[in-house]
Amino acid sequence: MSKVLVVTSGKGGVGKTTTSAAISSGLAMAGKKTVVIDFDVGLRNLDLIMGVERRVVYDIVNVIQGEAGLNQALIRHKEVDNLYVLPASQTKDKDALTEEGVGKVLNDLREEGFDYIVCDSPAGIERGAQLAMYYADEAIVVSNPEISSVRDSDRMLGILASKSRRAKDGETAIKEHLLITRYAPDRVGTGEMLSVEDMLEILAVPLLGVIPESNAVLQASNAGRPVILDENTDAGQAYHDAVGRLLGEERPMRFIETEKKSLFGRLFGRS
Amino acid sequence: MGLLDIFRNRSQDPSAKMAKERLQILIAHERAQGQHITPHYLPEMQKEILEVIRKYVHVEDDAVKFEVEHNEQFELFELNITLPEKGEGNERSD
Known about the structure:
- The complex is a heterodimer.
- By secondary structure, chain A is α/β, with parallel strands linked by helices.
- Helices cover 41% and strands 16% of the residues of chain A.
- Chain A has 13 helices and 8 strands.
- An 8-stranded mixed β-sheet of chain A has the order 3-4-2-5-1-6-7-8, with helices on both faces.
- The relative contact order of chain A is 0.17.
- The mean pLDDT of chain A is 94.
- Chain B is of the alpha+beta class.
- Helices cover 48% and strands 15% of the residues of chain B.
- Chain B is built from 3 helices and 2 strands.
- Chain B has helices spanning 3-11, 15-35, 42-56; strands at 64-70, 75-81.
- The radius of gyration of chain B is 27 Å and the shape is elongated.
- Chain B starts with a helix and ends in a 13-residue tail after the last strand.
- Classes of the chains: A alpha/beta, B alpha+beta.
- The A-B interface holds A 147, 150-151, 154-155, 158, 162, 188, 190-195, 198, 201-202, 266-267, 269, 271 and B 1-3, 6, 9, 12, 14-17, 19-20, 22-24, 26-27, 30-31, 34, 37.
């Protein structure tokens, strides 16, 4: 049984594509046959973050419009087994994505035996975002500890609960997960950033993970290598934990406490 | 971080607290609105009501206003029809 997983947020720039790349890579590394689909028609970027931008020949719109077969458009990741990328079109019109077309692509991917189909949603609540979440079984809502991001996440949770296929067909609701990104425990400590507890209290969605603000994320996207592949980094490890939890494991939350500084360090600026 | 910063940090107004309070108020409000999604049959019903009215009197599209109001216990469907002024000869004879 394949699972359709949407990575969404409403707000842009919070880490949807970084998360899609990391989670899909993590699932594949755990032995699950995984495909990650870019739904941002016209502004594709998943190919860059995954490091496959030079191997894009066909895209999801070509597949929907019958100009290419699914297997021609799927890009196999060179470093991670079981991992495939289906890019978005860079040139076609946004309306090229249709509910019927996307449904067919997802069905074909199910028949290809994929365990996980990860849909990287564009920002906003327009067509691309709606289609990315429409067929989802589970949703990862990515949110920064920042007021506008939290508000948009709540809005997106409302849309997941009312406008998805599951909601329309009266099936069990989409399983929701909250993933907090760009978390800075020291700023939470000084009271200038919303805490994990604050966000959980407001959004009331089970927590999948907390990804700390990390230099590793920019370095990973510079290199076109999903951050989860670098297991020495804090962000990479935090994504590993999140993937474990997604697969039903229990893992303690890491990277949410400030490293305690000694009084000496505080007094003399050893940070 | 120097000696002064330690005291400065302690006395700083925690802006995250403001963020949380603002979000709680805003989101409670937005959720309350979101729960009352306009019934799906409304557009069709509006069309039919308009057709019935036009059997008797000619009214423009914008002379008929439909509104759904949500109260805590009930929903109110409001229909406002502005009839044409007398002497305009709009009454239908057919």
